[in-house]
C-alpha cells in the first residue's frame, strides 16, 4: 500500500491541467456573477431577462453534454480540447462587443455549448494524468480548482468594476481564459481505443451518448446538485434578509478554506478505505450545514455553516466524479464524465427553478430545511444505487485497467 503512494500526483502535466481548469472556471463564475448587474444596468434589461440569460447558458450546456462523450470518442481528447477551448475563448472575447440583449442571449447560448464540451474533456484528461492508486485524491484536487474559482471569479469581477468599465473587465476575462488555453498546448494527452470486439455499428444508440455504468452515481449527483442549487442561487438574497449581506463573500471564503484543509485527508481516505468512508460522513456535514443555514442570525453561524458545507459538499462531489469515471472502461471516460455532468447540471438547473418557487411560498428558512432533508434522504439512495450496481471502491478502476 505504501508503494502505491510513491506515485506522484503533482506532476507538471497535472499542474497544467489544474491551472487551465482554474482559469476557465474563474471566467465562468465571474460572468455568472456580473452579468445580472450588467444586464440591468447597461442593457436596461428586466429581472426576467436576467434569468433568461443565465438559464439559456445552462440549458445549452445540458443539451450538448450527452454528445460530448461521443465527440471525444470521434475526435480524440487532444483535438476536442484544443478546438472546444479555442471557441470558448472566442466566446469570451465576444462579450467585449455586446451592445444589445439579443446579442448577449445568442452569445450565452453559443458559449454554453462549448463550456459543456471543454469542461467534459478536461476532466477526462485529468483522470488520465492522475495515477490509478491516487485517483480519489487527484480528482479531488482537480475539482477543488473549480470550487476555488467560485471565490476568485466573483472577487475579481466585483473588484475590477470598482476601477474599470465593463468592457475592460470583459477584456481582462478574455485574457485570463486565453492564457489558460495556451497551457492546453503543453498537455500530453493519452488516447484510449476500445477493443475491436467492443466497436459498435454506425447506427446511433443510447450507448453513444450515455455511459449506463455511471448512471447510479450520476443520479445521486443530481440529488446533491439539486440541494446545492440553494447555495448558488439564493445565499446572497437570503443573507440580505438577515442583515448579513456584507458577509456573503466571507461565506464562500470559509467554504473554500474548509474544502482545501480537508482535501488531502479525504482524498487519501478515498484511495485507502474506499468512497463510503468519505461520502457518508460528508453527507452528514453537508446536511448539518444546510440545517444550520436555515436559522442563521449572526456572522458566527454563517461562518460555521460555510465550514460544514465546505467540508461536506466539497468532499462529496470529487468522490462522485471519481466513481463515475471509475465505473466505466478507460476508452469510455469521456462518456462517463458527460453522463455525470448531464445529470449534475440538470440538478442545479431544476433545483434553482423549483427552489425558487419554494422560497417564494415558504421563505428561505424552509428552503434550506428542505434541502437538508433532501440530502438526508440521498444517503439511503446512494447506498441502494451504488450497492445494487456494485460501485463499492476504487478497486473498480484497477479492474478496468486489467481489462483494457
TrEMBL record:
Domain Major facilitator superfamily (MFS) profile: 13-390
Domain of life: Bacteria
Subcellular location: Cell membrane
Membrane topology according to the record: Multi-pass membrane protein
A Pfam match: MFS_1
The keyword Signal belongs to this UniProt entry's keyword annotation: no
Gene3D superfamilies referenced in this protein's UniProt entry, alphabetically: MFS general substrate transporter like domains (1.20.1250.20)
Residue stretches spanning the membrane: 12-38, 50-68, 80-98, 104-126, 138-158, 164-187, 215-238, 244-265, 277-296, 302-325, 337-358, 364-383
Protein name: MFS transporter
Classification lineage: Bacteria, Bacillati, Bacillota, Bacilli, Bacillales
Database matches in InterPro entries: MFS, MFS_dom, MFS_Exporter, MFS_trans_sf
CDD domains the record matches: MFS_YfcJ_like
Record flagged with keyword Metal-binding: no
PROSITE patterns assigned: MFS
Source organism per UniProt: Niallia oryzisoli
Keywords linked to the UniProt accession: Membrane, Transmembrane, Transmembrane helix, Transport
Amino acid at each position: 500500500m505504501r508503494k502505491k503512494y510513491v506515485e506522484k500526483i503533482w506532476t507538471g502535466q497535472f499542474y497544467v491541467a489544474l491551472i487551465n481548469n482554474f482559469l476557465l472556471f474563474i471566467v465562468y463564475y465571474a460572468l455568472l456573477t456580473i452579468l445580472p448587474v450588467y444586464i440591468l444596468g447597461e442593457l436596461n434589461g428586466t429581472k426576467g431577462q436576467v434569468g433568461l440569460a443565465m438559464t439559456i447558458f445552462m440549458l445549452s450546456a445540458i443539451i450538448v453534454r450527452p454528445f460530448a462523450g461521443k465527440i471525444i470518442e470521434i475526435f480524440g481528447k487532444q483535438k476536442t480540447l484544443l478546438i472546444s477551448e479555442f471557441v470558448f475563448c472566442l466566446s469570451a472575447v465576444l462579450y467585449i462587443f455586446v451592445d444589445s440583449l439579443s446579442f448577449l442571449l445568442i452569445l450565452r447560448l453559443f458559449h454554453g455549448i462549448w463550456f459543456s464540451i471543454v469542461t467534459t474533456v478536461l476532466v477526462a484528461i485529468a483522470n488520465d494524468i492522475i495515477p490509478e492508486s491516487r485517483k480519489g485524491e487527484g480528482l479531488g484536487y482537480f475539482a477543488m480548482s473549480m470550487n476555488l474559482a467560485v471565490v476568485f471569479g466573483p472577487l475579481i469581477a466585483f473588484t475590477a468594476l470598482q476601477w474599470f468599465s465593463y468592457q475592460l473587465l470583459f477584456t481582462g476575462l478574455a485574457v485570463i481564459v486565453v492564457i489558460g488555453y495556451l497551457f492546453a498546448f503543453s498537455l500530453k494527452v493519452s488516447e484510449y481505443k476500445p477493443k475491436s470486439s467492443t466497436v459498435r455499428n454506425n447506427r446511433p444508440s443510447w450507448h453513444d451518448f450515455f455511459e449506463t455504468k455511471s448512471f447510479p452515481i450520476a443520479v445521486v449527483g443530481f440529488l446533491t446538485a439539486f440541494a446545492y442549487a440553494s447555495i448558488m442561487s439564493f445565499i446572497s438574497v437570503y443573507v440580505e434578509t438577515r442583515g448579513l449581506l456584507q458577509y456573503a463573500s466571507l461565506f464562500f471564503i470559509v467554504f473554500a478554506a474548509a474544502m482545501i484543509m480537508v482535501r488531502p485527508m479525504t482524498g487519501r481516505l478515498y484511495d485507502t478505505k474506499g468512497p463510503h468512508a468519505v461520502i457518508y460522513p460528508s453527507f452528514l456535514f453537508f446536511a448539518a450545514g444546510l440545517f444550520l443555514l436555515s436559522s442563521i442570525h449572526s456572522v458566527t453561524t454563517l461562518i460555521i455553516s460555510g465550514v460544514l458545507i465546505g467540508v461536506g459538499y466539497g468532499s462529496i462531489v470529487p468522490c462522485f466524479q471519481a466513481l463515475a469515471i471509475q465505473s466505466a472502461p478507460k476508452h469510455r471516460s469521456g462518456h462517463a464524465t458527460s453522463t455525470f455532468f448531464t445529470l449534475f447540471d440538470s440538478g442545479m438547473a431544476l433545483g434553482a427553478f423549483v427552489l425558487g418557487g419554494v422560497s417564494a411560498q415558504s421563505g428561505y428558512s424552509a428552503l434550506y430545511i428542505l434541502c437538508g432533508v433532501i440530502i438526508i434522504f440521498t444517503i439511503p439512495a446512494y447506498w441502494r444505487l451504488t450497492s445494487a450496481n456494485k460501485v463499492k471502491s476504487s478497486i473498480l478502476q484497477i479492474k478496468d485497467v486489467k481489462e483494457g
